[in-house]
Amino acid sequence: MAGEHNSGEPRAVSVGVLKGGFGKTTTAINLARELAHRNGSALVVDLDDNGHMSQNLGFTEQYSAEENHAEAVLINGEDPTQYIQTVSHGLDIFPAHVQLEDVQSGLKEATMGTTRLKENLINPLLGDEYEYIVVDCPANRGKLNDNAMYATGNIIIPLRAESGYESGLSSTVQRLVQEARQYFELNILAITPTDLQDRIDQDTRDRSLLKEINNRDGVSKLVPNYARITSDDWEAIDQGKQNGNLPGIRHRAAIDRAHDEGVPLRDYDEACDQLEAYDELAQIVEQGEVVHK
Question: What CDD domains does the database record attribute to this sequence (predicted)?
Fold first, then answer.
């Protein structure tokens, strides 16, 4: 169902990065929750074989079920709606399954194996049941990731300010995005820093990450407004004249506690200041691009 914020064009998006521990699942669930909040409904698809999102949200029974629902839909073409579960307030989930690796092997053997997620789940639901669908991707290359990229045609890449973020970004762009673009259109909607918690007026990893994405050719235009830092901003920061909130999605106890409670951030603490960042991410999905102020 479309809400007052809807741009009029249904859109699916993958949240992916070829490195674990970069906030991918946290970004995906909170982005999907904000899309549901803004538009009335949204679907998140858990394609990550570790099933962290599905289990954390309370769908361990579906994740461990004897019937492999992911295989039933992606390989056998069964109706996906019979396996969809309600998370909260218009947000639904197609859960992961413990045997997703078997599905990945089956997709390698299947005719047109890269197209199955699009043909069997995204196309039947997008624009009909849901205006927006978010796919939480595995952190490794393979047919599940190929399916996600092909089905959505859009990706958001989250990054954490820890050792290896440069390789995580480069690997994702080169090995996932650029390789996919040899075969189909794939847009990077945004590149977002997550879980930032250090000062940026000193030589910290947060500063290095923010410098990298805001100064790198082809990347800076993909940085959301909440993480954008201009040369004038850096000058003010280094002179101790920075005003306003620190950039990026910042570390908050509420985000960790929401995870511990097995709910999206909005359902744990709707007053958390970081919801503004997830709301902007939702707007980027609605608009199909970053629009700098």
Answer: ParAB_family
| Backbone torsions φ then ψ of 84, nearest 5 degrees | -80, 140
The pLDDT value recorded for residue 5 is: 56
CB atoms within 10 A of CB 125: 20
pTM beyond 0.85: yes
- Does residue 195 come out as left (phi exceeding 0), alpha (psi in the -120 to 50 range) or beta? left
Summarised one tens digit per residue, pLDDT across range 47-88 is: 999 999 999 999 999 999 999 999 999 999 999 999 999 999
Q: For tokens 């741009």, what's the residue? A: 7
Domain locations in the chain as residue ranges: 11-287
11-287: which CATH number, 3.30.70.980, 2.60.120.200, 3.40.50.2300, 3.40.50.300? 3.40.50.300
Q: How many CB atoms lie within 10 A of CB 132?
A: 27
The three-state DSSP-derived secondary structure of 130-192 is ECEEEEECCCCCCHHHHHHHHHHCEEEEEEECCCCHHHHHHHHHHHHHHHHCCCCCCEEEEEE
Query: What is the tens place of the pLDDT at every residue in 212-231?
Result: 999 988 899 999 999 999 99
Residue 36, class by beta-carbon neighbours within 10 Å (0-12 exposed, 13-18 middle, 19+ buried)?
Answer: buried
- Report phi then psi at 134, rounded to 5: -115, 130
Contacts of 23 (CB under 8 A, 6+ apart): 158, 160, 194, 195, 249
Give the model's pLDDT for residue 165: 72
pLDDT band for position 245 (cuts 50, 70, 90): confident
Query: What average pLDDT score do residues 232-256 get?
Result: 89
Q: Furthest-apart CA pair in the chain: how many Å?
A: 61
